[in-house]
Amino acid sequence: MTIANTASASTNRVSHDFEKPLWRRVLISRESGIVALLILVTLYATVAVRGFGQPITLNYLLLDVAPILLIALPMTLIMITGEIDLSVGSMVGLASVVTGAGVQAGLPFEVAALLALLVGAIGGAVNGFLVTVVGLPSLAVTIGTLALFRGLAVGVLGTTAVTDFPELWTALAKAKIAGTTIPYIMVPFVILLVVFVIMLHFTPFGRGIYAIGLSKDAARFSGIHVERTKFVLFLLSGLVAAFAGIFFTLRFGSARGDNATGLELQVIAAVVLGGVSVFGGRGQLYGVVAAVLLIGVLSSALRLANVTSDVINVITGALLVLSVVGASLLAWVQRARRRPGRLPRVAASTAS
Fold first, then answer.
1. 351 or 62: which carries more pLDDT confidence?
2. CA 117 to CA 124: how far, in whole Å?
3. 127 near 237, Cβ under 8 Å?
4. Which burial class, exposed, middle or buried, applies to 279 when counting CB atoms under 10 A from its CB (0-12, 13-18, 19+)?
5. Rounded CA separation 115/44 (Å)
6. Taking 60 as the threshold, does the pLDDT of residue 341 lie above it?
7. CA 31 to chain centre
8. What crossing angle do the helices spanning 285-304 and 55-80 adopt, rounded to 10°?
9. pLDDT band per the 50, 70, 90 thresholds, residue 25
10. What is the pTM of this model?
11. CB 208 within 8 A of CB 81
12. Is it the case that residue 269 has pLDDT exceeding 50?
């Protein structure tokens, strides 16, 4: 009986992943594989695709992926908890419409943008309330709010578009940092990235996110406020999506109800490709950022090579499927290598 209890405790205490040295956990991982693939694809595209290595290409690439990079930050944390937010694309469109409608009504752009951020926070809070308080599945809730937010966006402006935005702000959205080809939108992204990295990897709140993804009940019994944590994450998701919607509006100089249609699928594809488990409990932000850039580099290089958008979507989807299948196959091989019924060393020494 003592041996069984000791073995059980040791099994709970020992993690096969953390038995490996730190350098091996960092370098031999799915996230590092995505980073390596990003480097290889970028080098190959620079050499093989005419025009890809030009500074203007980097500028447009970063402008294209900026909304995805922004929204992927809170989406990563949400999916680590085992939840999902499918309404982010519609929230981008709704925030765009609120900004445009505010300017059209005579409000200063800054006030209209603040209203859009407020709408984003409210939308995120609605998702969080329905998931954490009412207890509905996040998949069902956010599918519903996806349609709701998009319907509101289209209902406010209809088929018209608002294009009368201050030139100062539209120019700033496309401007480059002095002496570089990097757009200014990367500055708030880097700030948010640092905040989310610290929050996820260096705070008790972040450890609670991983614990919730591994076992919601165990996390609750450990004293983690599961519902409050999820609510905060959904609130952040709505807020960041609204900010991305404001940037989207300024970059293209147009507020329309159908802005950013389908963006949520690109975000989720990048998060999953970046190593975040769809079942929760696993993921790193640097892998997600690398995955977003990888998809952006692939799309940009293929467009310069005159590949149609349909083929680009097929290639991106195949890459995502291969990454998921490869991760599952690797996990199966690792489990198969472990001999069943083997007692941990601590249990074996106790037994002797």
1. 62
2. 11
3. yes
4. exposed
5. 44
6. no
7. 14
8. 140
9. low
10. 0.86
11. no
12. yes
Compute the average pLDDT of residues 301-322: 84
What does the block give as tokens for 172?
Answer: 């700033």
Burial class (CB in 10 A: 0-12, 13-18, 19+), 24: exposed
- Confidence at residue 37, expressed as pLDDT on a 0 to 100 scale: 87
Q: How far is CA 122 from CA 89, 95, 98, 232, 296, in A?
A: 15, 11, 13, 12, 30
8 Å CB contact between 200 and 212: no
- The two tokens of residue 300 are 């940009």
Query: Which amino acid is present at 64?
Result: D
Domains and CATH numbers, the chain: 20-335 (1.10.3470)
Instruction: Give residues with Cβ within 8 angstroms of 147, minimum separation 6.
Output: 90
**Mean pLDDT, rounded, for 252-274:** 90
Tokens of 352: 């002797």
- Give the span between the Cα atoms of 1 and 4, in whole angstroms: 5
User: Cα torsion at 156, 160, 165, 170 (round to 10°)?
Assistant: 110
177 closest CA partner among 162, 190, 195, 164: 190
For residue 124, give the 3-state DSSP assignment: helix
Q: What is the pLDDT of residue 5?
A: 40
